[in-house]
Design brief:
Residues 240-297 form a coiled coil. The chain has a domain at 7-203. Helix content is 57%, strand content 14%. The chain has helices at 3-11, 17-24, 27-37, 90-104, 170-179, 189-203, 205-308, 313-324, 328-336; strands at residues 50-55, 64-71, 77-83, 118-124, 135-138, 140-142, 145-150, 154-160. The strands form 2 sheets. It has a 6-stranded mixed sheet, with helices on both faces. A hairpin with a 2-residue loop joins β6 and β7 (145-150).
């Protein structure tokens, strides 16, 4: 026998769902536990508790397997569950268990008002709602009138086993302490029966072997689920990286487009500047041409005026050359006309 599994079996108590189920199969223990949970019902007797009873709400619906299921002499239905780990789905889980239990409460052809009541009871090794309560009793109510409870025959009860608030009565507290493996008064008859029953369960070789096989299966299943979760995490991380890469690529494309637009804008501005420069050069050329033409007119007019005054050509050429700073070639051209 695997040493780890052997120690696990030896150390397992009521907080282990397998041990809890086998202990709660005991008629007297199950009856007394229900009486302590629901003292106002004054339960006299119950049907022999059924372990791992399975119900299917619909042919294509998920089946639900109850840990401990029984009914009392009044026809009330009880589902008792040990919830070891917090999978963060407790409310939806209760809803489905209650649905399956409630379906059993409706006999074919029976009027709705004669339907039996159903109780789903969860012993949680954690605080199911993280609100600090030791016991949570759930009923439907009217939102606009919270204190108005809807009496539909469904009751959900959840116990926060690790809680030390002691909000329940001493007898119920003793049972919770047994689950949590805390010190308990040995004079409590239920505590005595529980310890005896646990010892009987631990001596049962068939149950021990079944526990080992189930533990190996659960460890394998947990490892597979861990690998699946790890794979899913890697896929999610990969998707996030792809999305991040796509966002970065998109941002780079936007930056590239922005750069291209800025380049185009710069090119347009350069071209516009070049066009303005050409226009200015053209204007300067036109002005220079105009000045040249005006100078030519003035020079020609001056030559004509000095000739009319009978000034000799040499003097005229000298005067024009100095006054207008002309070259010999330009003087020659003017007087060649």
């Amino acid at each position: 026998m695997n040493e780890f599994l052997r120690k696990k079996w030896e150390m397992a108590g009521l907080s282990d769902d397998y041990i809890f189920n086998k202990v709660m199969l005991d008629y007297d223990i199950c009856l007394e536990v229900l009486r302590r949970i629901l003292p106002d019902l004054h339960i006299k007797k119950i049907k022999l508790p059924n372990n791992q009873q399975e119900f299917t709400v619909a042919p294509d619906a998920k089946a639900v397997r109850f840990d401990i299921y029984t009914t009392d002499e009044q026809g009330n239905h009880y589902d008792i569950e040990m919830q070891v780990a917090d999978h963060h789905n407790i409310t939806k889980r209760i809803r489905y268990y209650q649905t399956a239990s409630s379906m059993e409460a409706y006999d074919k052809g029976q009027p709705y008002e004669q339907a039996d009541d159903s109780y789903v009871i969860f012993f949680c090794n954690f605080d199911p709602f993280q609100l600090g309560q030791q016991r949570y009793v759930l009923h439907k109510h009217i939102d606009e009138i919270p204190e108005q409870i809807i009496e539909d025959g469904q009751t959900d009860i959840l116990f926060n086993v690790p809680s030390l608030r002691h909000d329940v009565d001493p007898e119920m507290q003793a049972f919770l302490d047994m689950i949590a493996q805390r010190e308990v008064e040995a004079t409590d008859p239920l505590v005595v029966k529980l310890k005896e029953r646990i010892a009987v369960v631990k001596r049962n070789r068939k149950w021990r072997s079944e526990y080992m096989r189930r533990s190996v299966y659960e460890m394998d299943q947990e490892m597979r689920e861990k690998k699946i979760r790890e794979g899913e995490r890697k896929v999610r991380d990969g998707k996030r990286e792809i999305l991040e890469g796509n966002r970065e690529l998109l941002e780079e494309k936007r930056e590239l487009q922005k750069g291209k637009r800025e380049i185009q804008k710069s090119k347009r501005e350069i071209k516009e500047g070049q066009d303005r420069l050409k226009e200015k050069e053209q204007l300067i050329q036109e002005r220079e041409q105009k000045l040249h033409e005006n100078q030519q007119t003035i020079i020609k007019t001056s030559i004509v005026a000095m000739r009319e005054l009978n000034i000799d050509e040499t003097t005229i050429k000298k005067e024009i050359k100095e006054k207008f700073d002309l070259s010999d070639k330009e003087i020659k051209d003017y007087f060649a006309e």
